[in-house]
Amino acid sequence: MKVDGKDIRPIWLDEDLKTVKVIDQRRLPHEFVVADLETVDDIITAIKEMYVRGAPLIGVTAAYGVYLAALNAPDNYGETDYLIKECRRLKAARPTAVNLAWAADRVLSAVLNIENDAERLKAARREADAIAEAEAENCRNIGLHGLPLIEEIYRKKGNTTVNLLTHCNAGWLACIEYGTATAPIYTAFDKGLDVHVWVDETRPLNQGARLTAWELGKHGIKHTVITDNAGGHLMQHGMVDMVIVGTDRSTYTGDVANKIGTYLKALAAKDNNIPFYVALPSSTFDWQLRDGIKQIPIEERDPDEVRYVQGLNQGSTISVLVPPANSPAADFAFDVTPARLVTGFITERGVCKATEQDVRRLFPEK
């Protein structure tokens, strides 16, 4: 995607082939900082501390983590055992997003049977690059398959503004290109449709207000930042035509784990007969789990993410304590929206209902 006229991605391998570069998303929108990741520990820190976030991007970051493990493997350590151990550490970095384990295991499988060090390293880089390019292409296709849904609303409204509502950041910052939930929006805008996006602030880390608003603004798309609790009011008053969100893990039966607060948006959409779509590449499906509410692990993060808010003050980014200093807080990072509230999935292969039968129709090999 373009930022101020320059093509950029949220992650890339430096020309020295020894450093993974990432946009430090903790610093956006007020500071644009690129972080250097040179070891597996650096990768784990970036994932845990959310320099990088979003299921597809976490997966690609983990893939390059396996590459760095192969690059930095000590001479006195059994190569296979070392890579398996480092891959296990990478997969433990965050529990909810299924892409992390999927991507790390895919790179590991590509290199385990290669004995030559140089060839093993080439294979790891080749596989990590392939995952990045595939995820970018998947998101492009999500945009193409989601476009007709927006076009239909546009026609029904007499070619007037289509109002979409998003939650968290499921844009190119969370992926590689295009995004998941934002891919149809970018595609519609680039085709000339009049679209406007209601951007949930997405507490506690405000990924909507900080990241989605920044992305959309850079692309020239009309948007309005709203409090997380405003969505229901807007839906009641006919100000939302469609809700579209991403997901960090979805079961093949249709349950959706996404940023905390997604479930409440789905309930409001259902009550107001507004379509609620989830956009995801197939790498975000968990093909092992049936019951998302009971089986998907929900990450609990540092309560200080709830207690403090980050913002710009006289040119400097600062954190400010909001509640009383001695008040406890809880930081649940995700919730699960049951399949019955999901109108459909937008995937790289097309749109399907949030049912096992229809998901398997698109992905019969699974």
Automatic annotation (TrEMBL):
It comes from the Bacteria. The record marks C168 as: Transition state stabilizer. The active site is at D248 (proton donor). GO terms for molecular function: S-methyl-5-thioribose-1-phosphate isomerase activity. Keywords: Amino-acid biosynthesis, Isomerase, Methionine biosynthesis. It catalyses: 5-(methylsulfanyl)-alpha-D-ribose 1-phosphate = 5-(methylsulfanyl)-D-ribulose 1-phosphate. It is an enzyme of class 5 (isomerase). Pathway: Amino-acid biosynthesis; L-methionine biosynthesis via salvage pathway; L-methionine from S-methyl-5-thio-alpha-D-ribose 1-phosphate: step 1/6. Its EC number is 5.3.1.23. GO terms for biological process: L-methionine salvage from methylthioadenosine. Substrate binds at R53, G54, A55, R94, Q207, N258, K259. It holds the Pfam family IF-2B. PANTHER family: METHYLTHIORIBOSE-1-PHOSPHATE ISOMERASE (PTHR43475). Belongs to the EIF-2B alpha/beta/delta subunits family. MtnA subfamily. Catalyzes the interconversion of methylthioribose-1-phosphate (MTR-1-P) into methylthioribulose-1-phosphate (MTRu-1-P). This is Methylthioribose-1-phosphate isomerase. It comes from Candidatus Desulfatibia vada. The gene is mtnA.
